[in-house]
Amino acid sequence: MEIAASATPATRALATDAVHAGREDLVELGVHAPPLDLSTTYPSHDAAGEAARIDAFATTGARPDGPPVYARLDNPTTARFETALAKLEGTESAVAFASGMAALTAVLLVRASMGLRHVVAVRPLYGCSDHLLNAGLLGTEVTWTDPAGIGEALRPDTGLVMVETPANPTLAEVDLRAVRQACGSVPLLVDNTFATPVLQRPAEEGARLVLHSATKYLGGHGDVMGGVVACDEEFARKLRQVRFATGGVLHPMAGYLLLRGLSTLPVRVRAASTTAADLARRLTTDPRVARVHYPSIGGAMISFEVYGNPHDVIAGVRLITPAVSLGSVDTLIQHPASISHRIVDADDRRSAGVSDRLLRMSVGLEDVEDLWRDLTEALSARSVRSALPAQPAREGDREGLQPRPVGR
Ligand SMILES: *Cc1c(COP(=O)(O)O)cnc(C)c1O
C-alpha cells in the first residue's frame, strides 16, 4: 500500500489547524491530550548553564531552549496555546498574558521603552482600552481620530496606531487595508477579539500586532481569563521581556483551557454567527427596535437600540444572561453605557456612537427560536412597548435614561 506524501500539505485549513496546532509533538510524547505543566520552577544542578540561559533571555527575549528556569519566563503549556494562536492568525509568534488588558499594557510598555509614547486610536474601543489610553496611566498620550485622519495624526513619537474592528460595542468596521497604508512605518495594532481569526485575519492586511481578549471567544466558555498578542518574532521577543519584568503571565491552567478552546473555535464561531445573523434580521423588522448593528463580515455579536428603556430589556430576559463579557457558549446581554463602557466619559462615549439606548448581545449556541422567544418577551416589557413609536429615542440626552418606574 502506498500512502501519498501529500497527506500533510504545507497549508492546512483553519479548522484543521484549530485542533492540531500546538500539539505537534503529542504522538512522539505518547499522549493524546496535551500535558499540563504547573511548575513554578525547574531544577538544574548546572548554575553556569542557567546563568547563560538567563543572559540569553535578557538580551534576546527568545523562548529559552529546554526548561524555562522560572515560570515567569515561559511555560510549556502556555507556549502550546501561543503556537496554535499564531498559526490561526498567520503570524510568526504569539505572546500570552493574564488578560486582554495585560496584553495591551505590554504593547504600550514596549513602545514607551523606546520613547514612543504617542498613540493614534480610533473610537470606539473596548471601554477599558479607551480608559487605559485616555487616562495616561502608562504615560501614554493619545490622539483620537476617525480612520481617515490617521495619517495626519501621526507624529515623530507615535509608537502605535490602534483600531478595533468590528468595534466594541457598536460593531463599527474599519477598512484595515486603508488604515494600514495610512500608518506608514508605525505598527498597527488590531484588536481582533470580536471577529476571531475565523472571520478576519488582520495580519494578512498588514497589521503588525493582533490582540485578543482570550477571555472571550478563544476560551469560549466563560471560565478562563487571558490575553494574547500575535505578531512577528522580533516584537514577540520584546513582549516576552516586558512580561518577564512586569509579571502579567497567563496561568498554565488558563493556557491549557485556551488551547482546548481553540480546537472548537471555528465550529463555535460559525454556529453562533448563523444564529446571530438570523436574530439580527428579526430585530431589524421589529417595531420596538430603533436600530440594529450587525457587521458585514458576520459574527456572533449584535448591537441594537430600543425605543424604550433598555434597562427593562436587561431586567426582562430569562434564558439570556444579563452580564458583561462575551464569546461564551451561552448568550449574554448588557448595556454598554452602564457597564462595559461606563468608564469612558459620557460625551466621548456618545460621540463614538455608543448611544444610551444601545444594548450589546453576545449570541451563544442555544436554539434560535428559544433565544428569539426570550428576546421578544423582554422587549415586551412595559416601558419598552409604551415608548414606541411616537416618542423617539433621545440621542445625546445629557440626563441619561429615566429610572425605571418603581413597582411595575
Ligand atoms: C474584554 C475585551 C478586552 C479586555 O480583555 P480582558 O481579558 O477583559 O482584560 C479588550 N478588547 C476587547 C474588544 C474586549 O472585548
From TrEMBL:
Q: Which cofactor does it need?
A: pyridoxal 5'-phosphate
Q: Which UniProt keywords apply?
A: Pyridoxal phosphate, Transferase
Q: Which domain of life is it from?
A: Bacteria
For this chain, one GO molecular function annotation is:
transferase activity
Q: Where is this region: Disordered?
A: 384-408
Question: What Pfam families does the record tag this protein with?
Answer: Cys_Met_Meta_PP (PF01053)
InterPro entries xref list: Cys/Met-Metab_PyrdxlP-dep_enz (IPR000277), PyrdxlP-dep_Trfase (IPR015424), PyrdxlP-dep_Trfase_major (IPR015421), PyrdxlP-dep_Trfase_small (IPR015422)
Family to which this protein belongs? Belongs to the trans-sulfuration enzymes family.
Q: State the name under which the record lists this protein.
A: PLP-dependent transferase
Q: Which organism is it from?
A: Streptomyces peucetius
